[in-house]
Amino acid sequence: MQKIIVRLTLRSHKNVERIFAFYDYNDGINKLIREIPGAKYSSTYKSWHLPVVKELVQLFAERVKEIAVLDLCELRQQLVAKKQLPVIVRKISHKPELSQLCTENIEAFERYIETLILKAYSPSTIRTYKNEFFQLLKELKKIPVSNLTCEHIRRYMYYCLDRYKLSEATANSRINAIKFYFEQVLGRERMLIELPRPKMPLILPKVLGENELSGLFRALTNLKHKAILFTAYSAGLRVSEVVKLQLKHVDSDRMQLFIEGAKVKRTDM
């Protein structure tokens, strides 16, 4: 039996961007997409649509794989234009835990990602916050996350530290991710300010000795590599800062480097 082609595309619906699924009428697909959390029907477009969440597309693809295939070409082009390609078009893999969430939490997750992107957070921060917030949603399952109070979060963090033995860094990242939702997405002022935080351990940096540094520099035969290493060491630059350096960033008269887009998006000299 020939499979039905389901074309996915971005459309604005009630001032919210959604992923619309266009295909020849099919009762089987209609039934399957109706069961996806957050799925809604638009009488205007005569089509079902989903939140712009990678996991929901993956879940839909897994459920219809016996009778349909997803055409991602148009969606891929739209996401490339919006610089959101990694959100959707990675390899399709089923995540059954997403189906355990209530519709309210699916929509909260969608708005959470949208807010991170709108605030232009770095890709690594978006990835970390999204993963940590999703851990909370998985534990809540059918309980709406917006109903939680500071005391609920306090007990949740105690549960995470006691059961999962989170490191101090992971625990603080999780608190920051949850704090972002309540304060930046919902607009609640300083909701978690009194929540206790794990104290980060003081770790002394490992510093190479003078002989070790000399040996390292002497071992380099490639002039380009040697220039990169000398620049990073002498100016105390991160790898991401070194690779972005251009000739226009070098001020020979004042013997200074212009560091564009450094830590927390500041500019350094």
Fold blueprint:
Layout lengths: L3 E10 L2 E7 L4 H8 L5 E3 L4 E5 L2 H11 L3 E4 L1 H9 L3 H4 L14 H16 L4 H18 L9 H15 L3 H18 L24 H10 L3 H13 L3 H4 L7 E2 L4 E2 L12
Parallel strand pairs: 1-5
Antiparallel strand pairs: 1-2, 2-4, 3-4, 6-7
Helix pairs in contact: 5-6, 6-8, 7-8
Q: Please, could you describe this protein's structure?
A:
By secondary structure, this protein is α+β, with helices and mostly antiparallel strands. The chain folds into three domains: 4-95, no CATH class; 101-185, Orthogonal Bundle (DNA polymerase, domain 1), CATH 1.10.150.130; 210-265, no CATH class. 47% of the residues lie in helices and 12% in strands. The protein is built from eleven helices and seven strands. It has helices at residues 27-34, 54-64, 73-81, 85-88, 103-118, 123-140, 150-164, 168-185, 210-219, 223-235, 239-242, and strands at residues 4-13, 16-22, 40-42, 47-51, 68-71, 250-251, 256-257. A five-stranded mixed β-sheet has the order 3-4-2-1-5. Strands 6-7 form a two-stranded antiparallel ribbon. Strand 6 and strand 7 form a beta hairpin. The protein is extended.
